[in-house]
Amino acid sequence: MRKKNVVLTNIPVSDYAAEGKALAKVDGKVIFIEGGVMPGDVVDVRLSKSKKDWAEGKAVHIHSYSKDRVEPFCQHFGMCGGCKWQMVPYELQLKYKQQQVVDHLSRIGKMPLPPITPILGSKNTVNYRNKLEFTFSNRAYLTNEEIAAAGDGVIEHKPALGFHVPRLFDKVLNIDTCYLQAEPTNLIKNTLREYALANNLAFYDIRNHEGWLRNVIIRVLTTGEVMVNVVIHHEAKKQREALLDHLLAKVPSITTLLYTINPKKNDSIFDLEPKAYFGKGYAEEKLEDYTFKIGPKSFFQTNTYQGEALYQVTREFAGLTGNEVVYDLYCGTGSIGIFVSKQAKKVIGIELIKEAIDDAKENAERNNVTNATFYAGDVIDICDDAFFAAHGAPDVVITDPPRAGMHEKLVNKLLEIGAPKIVYVSCNPATQARDLALLHEKYTVEKIQPVDMFPHTHHIENVVLLIKR
Ligand SMILES: C[S@@+](CC[C@H](N)C(=O)[O-])C[C@H]1O[C@@H](n2cnc3c(N)ncnc32)[C@H](O)[C@@H]1O
């Protein structure tokens, strides 16, 4: 009998399952375990849910550690929500990710598969992100030791600049050194915090929606450019200028400094207008010889080196000879379409967000790409018979949907249109497997290449080539 709130003791963790949860089997029942454990650990698990065939819960005690464990390199490990797999050696992380792809495609996809090429590991396993966002909060997350130290006294809220603590919407963990992005990221963050504390600037209070400093979004690019956007709740000109001048003086490598006023309750800046305080107001990033404009609101692959590798795999799978009509579905800022444009006859990109399509057009122009056109709208609405008749039957469809995968209507349309090749780029092998199972009606999976974009996390990118039978 396995009930909710029951603690199972001495459970050997055997594997990782989807979404980075660890997995154990007890009396034939599958237990999903959260709480920083890895295969090889032996743990006690407090169940939070229990069904007939499976249960889930949190590790509350580790009896013995896996022999494979390595020392986490970050002082914030265990409290910060990022880089949760630091205790797993990188080679093993890759092994688990590879296995996830195999499991999903074979279990959900239920179709004959070719051998899956070994996952492409990331050249950089730290400092690999080109974009990072830190949050200011008047409520720092306090460790158990800090709470205990207060004894029976009142615990005062302290300001923090760092990352949200998982499941605690109002608590932010003060981050000293983060290894996700190259310098000057930590210098920028720590300079802002020190200045704000020294000058009594109000860190945002997300419960009462008051305060001044909200977020800082930092882009450190392989071109050497550094773009910083400081988000504040309301205008306070003198205070703002003093803060931004101080930051520029302390961090001379900043090439563009912006600020954004966000009086809303949520943190999204997509409906706001960032203003350039210093520099040209945007940055540039390179993939091979292509240059992309990165505005303060633009989407771009977060790991530049692996983004390039992902696009190279996509282009190789597309096998272009210069005569093909290529559709780039869910094209974002057009980066895949532009990347393959030299090898194609023409490229047609489709994306929901109008601003991303504006960027795509500008990116095509700045790279002298004249054979690509981009359309804003929902792929389901745009991809009708008239659109394909007007732009030409696709020789290759490249599709890169969000985590939810493709809408079934689009899958059906692709089956109807019957392009000779589909290259399916996915950030979620589970939904990809579901879509492949439907496409299997007319397509055979020819090649599979997983790519690791996010070391020390459970996230996986996977590229699949489908050939029409
Ligand atoms: C995983 S991103 C791919 C971006 C791009 N291919 C790249 O490599 O940068 C998925 C994109 O799909 C877009 N999207 C989501 N739903 C969509 C829809 N129904 N129709 C068109 N685009 C959509 C999102 O805005 C996002 O830009």
UniProtKB/TrEMBL annotation:
Ranges where the TRAM domain occurs: 1-61
UniProt-listed CDD domains: AdoMet_MTases
Gene Ontology BP terms: rRNA base methylation
Residues that hold S-adenosyl-L-methionine according to the record: 301, 330, 351, 400
Pfam families, alphabetized: TRAM (PF01938), tRNA_U5-meth_tr (PF05958)
The entry's keywords: Methyltransferase, S-adenosyl-L-methionine, Transferase
Cited Gene3D superfamilies: 2.40.50.1070, Nucleic acid-binding proteins, Vaccinia Virus protein VP39
Active site, per annotation: 427
UniProt key word S-adenosyl-L-methionine: yes
PANTHER family linked to this entry: RNA M5U METHYLTRANSFERASE, TRNA (URACIL(54)-C(5))-METHYLTRANSFERASE
Protein family: Belongs to the class I-like SAM-binding methyltransferase superfamily. RNA M5U methyltransferase family.
Name of this chain's protein: 23S rRNA (Uracil1939-C5)-methyltransferase
